[in-house]
Amino acid sequence: MIFKCTSILALFFFCNMAAAQSNDTDGIEGVLYSDEGWVSLSTTNGKISGINRLDQESHKSKMYIAPGLIDVQINGFMGVDFSGPDLTVEGIRKATKALWKAGVTTYFPTIITSDFNRLKKNFAILAQAQKDPEIGGSIPGFHLEGPYISPLPGFRGAHLEKYIKNPDWEEFQELQRAANNGIKLITLAPELIGAIPFIRNCVANGITVALGHHNGSAEDIERAIDAGAKMATHLGNGCANEINRHHNPLWPQLADDRITPSIIADGYHLTKEEVRSFYKVKGPDKTILVSDALDLAGLPPGEYTRGERTLLLTPNVVKLPKENVLAGAASPISACVGVIMDYTQCTLKDAIQMASTNPAKMFLLNDLGEIGQGKKADLILFKLENNEVVIHKTFVSGQLVYSKD
Questions:
Q1: CA–CA separation, 395 vs 402, rounded Å?
Q2: What's the whole-model pTM score?
Q3: Strand partners, 76
Q4: 365: which of 200, 246, 260, 357 lies 20 to 30 Å off by Cα?
Q5: Integer Cα distance of 334 and 289 in angstroms
Q6: SS3 242
Q7: φ/ψ of residue 396, rounded to 5
Q8: pLDDT tens figures, 335-344
Q9: 275-298: pLDDT as tens digits
Q10: Higher-confidence residue: 61 or 258?
Q11: Where are the beta strands (DSSP E) in 246-398?
Q12: What would you measure as the largest C-alpha separation in the chain, in angstroms?
């Protein structure tokens, strides 16, 4: 009997050892994005456990290696709409795996201005997906964009006016409970009644506040920043087509060093001159790249009906013809990496910093956004082809989740 128990315990021990070792990887090789040196990475239990320098001359193809990209504003992907009526955990799993192929290993599913019951329902579904052992590690939090934004045409963008309202802390807490406290980022308009105390409440509860889809004055913006707002959502977008050249929401956010803007550098949402100007003011340390991709991203161009909106998907962007505004992007954040390098002549290191390191720091994701000993082994291998990022392999927690070959 003793021998039998001992044998069972030994078998249990070796099975567990094998399971643990199955999450170890050796020989992930590439050109390090930060210094152009050839390296080989090893991982143990989902973390980077070794960084070994290699002889550069022994390699022919230039395959870069970098931390996985982090997108804190993405509304959906490959037909899965995080704000839609038919959201399911399976749909979120589909979108997550498609994002892995695009080099995005961490993202904040973004829910926009909608009916309150829809908001509650979909945040509850996202909270369920966050517990999924396969994809949950890629979803550290959620982004609520609206409904506390400007109702004015242009500034509200593609958000439906009938659902826009002033900030309501009790209502928001109800959403946060449905989300299992998963809402980590909220975009709002600082000029709305009740916005400043609402921002203070968010900050006190560990929620990052971004200013966006607003027509706030310099005074409104300063009060919001004093209250703890730290970001500007897709600066240069969510804005009327015509604004006062002196008094508008752009200059105060650019002028205040306490604000880190996110920008959609897909080559269509902002002009080259806008991207270059924003970059020169804020630099690679105070800029975050986002995709703002819609669920239509990855689908064939054409006209689509989404809820109460008719959208036009072009090969490059999504438009809302009725309002004559852009409704969102059609490209993943990996496209923004190549565009900002082209527009600003910044280095690959700077571009990856804006697409991975900076969002990790902003949201205290301390084991992400860099390649270093003990960091989570969320990694991408890619080639740069005419400044276009072409993903070849994606690793999440050291596990290969996508291979182009």
A1: 7
A2: 0.92
A3: 81
A4: 200
A5: 9
A6: coil
A7: -125, 120
A8: 999 999 999 9
A9: 999 999 999 999 999 999 988 888
A10: 258
A11: 260-263, 288-289, 302-306, 309-313, 317-320, 325-329, 379-385, 388-396
A12: 86
